[in-house]
Design goal:
heterodimer; A: about 325 residues; alpha/beta; 6-stranded parallel sheet; 13 helices; about 45% helix; about 10% strand; B: about 325 residues; Rossmann fold; globular
């Protein structure tokens, strides 16, 4: 068993969850104001999964995520300003404005990529795990995906390969009950994503993904086992997408009762209650939330001050230098 | 000592495995030699970790190779037939080709996807296609198609060392072809075409197995006094327009030959570029020799009837020579 975290750790994670919550709120606010190109997908309500899993990852561990990956990127340790600058398409962004919300990469922090194609990077995460395995290291790979990804064939192909090769990879399914606008009942006859693991011989569990304590404990055990070389693990976190599928989604597929009940599922409120029961002071927790708010708001303002990328650089990064050398002979 | 195309490919892979511990081979049956025996014996020499069999899961194994390439390996993946690359298109198009760009240069995918293509011996509609045009449409993806064993040796080694995702297309009709590898082979740069035969009257552009037909046609035309310059493209994307321009500026007449269907093929792209960049150099319309717009049939007589060959090229050369 993983050692349970101390109160100081829980407070740090409480703050980290607020950082994500405020960040997503700012994405929403600026998207509404027309400052965010494209269509960002918010992870509001899923903060406990991001923070509880990433608490166990080192900087070297590889992380891959889905189109709903802002929270994971922050939880992995990326700079708030650079992440936000990327989402608003600025030169100071993580990817110098080439990637955007759905393609965040922060290689220095082991954040190796989000994907705009559902399930598309599951095998890439397995490939990273294979590289670590061949290098004989205890570094692992983790990938976040939604329950919608289980409809893709490559999800099943990757599970099979990961078990066959005993790869050090943690599959984290954020089962938020929706694949875009369609509820899970409508798109799969299999109630729990964790049930897909057994036929391939992979251990798995389903936990309450809005309970940080549960996520932290389950991810800690799974990741410790991965580092010992026990092979892949699938962790299904039942969570809830408090926001729509994308910013601007009118959510007509959700009932009024459902939308009202959302607030009660909030993982941050739940953690706060747990910490108060554990002896934390409310004023102290509120101050942590406020600190996170100020940190993010200041980072957002600095990100907004970053210039857009120079249009003259639009052809950079297509090829490596040697390939470019060959290209340079070509008439433009 | 002359060796077959397959033996020379194996030698190139063997040497790259020996040179760089980051190089790993993977694919369906590769530890057992692969469907065509290219990797025979390499698993025994380098171990099952370096030469790994995979399930029949093209999407996952292409993603696996891509992810491993992001983390320090130099995978050489075998996709048994290019027809099966359809199953790996999401990864190749949306992930492998775009990683360097989408990440703003933070990450790269130094990976080679070896596959084989083309029609021969009744492989029929789902094992005979020439699908290179799909891939030259994708920025970030390098597409290489060697025309001979010696060319394949150098190009494969260059591709492994390049640092970009490379689709390396071998033609199954070339596999049994034999050549002697010179003692000192200079590795050809990726992105450079080769003048396979020097000429003055017509530029004949080809790649892969069609280069052999092009050389046969050029021989035939030389007997009637027409001097044909044959270009072997080698790298299909990015295109070496500089070599093409130098030749066209000399001959002023162009024929482009490929086995892929004419519609939307590489010939259309080259022809359009010549038309816009070198219009003043042309003394005749650019002509294409390509496959009619039909799937590859099974029966030998039908296959032969459909595929473009030396006779088609000879006719086209006579046509542009006026």
């Amino acid at each position: 068993m993983t050692e349970p975290a101390a109160m100081a750790d829980w407070k740090r994670m409480y703050r980290a969850m607020w950082r994500i919550r405020i960040f997503e709120g700012q994405v929403q606010r600026l998207a509404a104001a027309g400052e965010v190109p494209g269509f960002p997908h918010l992870s509001t309500g899923q903060e406990a999964v991001a923070v509880g899993v990433c608490a166990h990852l080192t900087r070297e561990d590889a992380l891959f995520t889905s189109h709903r990956g802002h929270g994971h990127t922050l939880a992995k340790g990326s700079d708030v300003q650079a992440a936000f600058a990327e989402i608003i398409g600025r030169d100071g962004g993580l990817c110098r404005g080439r990637g955007g919300s759905m393609h965040l990469v922060d290689a220095a922090n082991g954040m190796l990529g989000a994907t705009g194609v559902v399930a598309g990077n599951l095998p890439l995460a397995a490939g990273a795990a294979w590289a670590f395995q061949t290098q004989g290291s205890t570094t692992i790979s983790a990938v976040f995906f939604g329950d919608g990804a289980t409809g893709a064939g490559v999800f099943h192909e990757t599970l099979n390969l990961a078990v066959l090769w005993k790869l050090p990879i943690l599959f984290v399914c954020e089962n938020n009950g929706y694949a875009e606008f369609t509820s899970r009942e409508e798109h799969s006859n299999v109630k729990h994503v964790s049930a897909f693991a057994a036929p391939y011989g992979m251990p798995a569990s389903t936990i309450d993904g809005n309970d940080l304590f549960a996520v932290h404990a389950a991810a800690g055990d799974a990741i410790a086992a991965l580092r010992r070389g026990s092979g892949p693990y699938l962790l299904e976190c039942m969570t809830y997408r408090m926001a729509g599928h994308f910013v601007g989604d009118a959510q007509r597929y959700r009932s009024k009762e459902e939308l009202t009940a959302i607030k009660e599922k909030c993982p941050i409120e739940r953690l706060k209650r747990r910490l108060l029961e554990g002896g934390a002071q409310e004023s102290e927790l509120d101050a942590l939330g406020e600190e996170a708010r100020q940190e993010v708001l200041q980072a957002v303002e600095r990100a907004r001050a970053s210039p857009p990328p120079d249009p003259a650089t639009v052809l950079e990064y297509v090829y490596s230098a040697p390939a470019l050398a060959a290209l340079s002979r070509v008439k433009p | 000592m002359s060796q077959t195309f397959i033996e020379i490919l194996r030698r190139a892979l063997d040497e790259e495995l020996g040179r760089d511990p980051a190089v790993h081979l993977l694919g369906e049956d590769v530890a057992a030699g692969g469907a065509f025996g290219v990797t025979t014996g390499l698993a025994q020499k380098y171990g099952a970790q370096r030469v790994r069999n995979t399930p029949i899961s093209e999407a996952a194994i292409t993603g696996l190779a891509t992810g491993a390439a992001l983390c320090g390996l130099r995978p050489v993946l075998e996709i048994m037939f290019i027809d099966f690359a359809t199953l790996a298109l999401d990864c190749l198009v949306n992930q492998s080709a775009k990683y360097r760009y989408m990440s703003g240069g933070q990450l790269a995918v130094p990976m080679v996807v070896r596959t084989q293509a083309g029609a021969a011996g009744g492989a029929a509609a789902q094992h005979s296609q020439s699908l290179e045009a799909w891939f030259i449409h994708i920025p970030g993806l390098i597409v290489v198609a060697p025309s001979s064993p010696v060319e394949a040796y150098g190009l494969l080694k260059s591709a492994v060392r390049l640092g970009d995702p490379v689709l390396f297309i071998e033609h199954k009709r070339l596999y049994s072809l034999k050549e002697a590898l010179p003692l000192d082979v200079e590795l050809p740069p990726i992105g450079r075409a080769r003048v396979a035969r020097v000429g003055t009257d017509v530029t004949l552009i080809a790649y892969s197995a069609m280069v052999r037909n092009a050389l046969e046609a050029a021989d035939e035309l030389s007997r009637s006094g027409l001097s044909v310059e044959v270009l072997d493209l080698r790298t299909l994307s990015p295109l070496d327009m500089a070599t093409i321009a130098a030749s066209v500026s000399k001959t002023h007449r162009v024929v482009i030959a490929h086995e892929a269907v004419e519609n939307g093929g590489l010939g259309a792209e080259i022809s359009a570029r010549i038309g816009s960049d070198l219009f003043d150099e042309l003394d005749a319309p650019v002509m294409r020799v390509a496959c009619p717009f039909a799937p590859i049939p099974f029966a030998p007589g039908l296959e032969q009837a459909l595929l473009p060959g030396t006779a088609n090229i000879v006719r086209a050369l006579h046509g542009v020579a006026g």
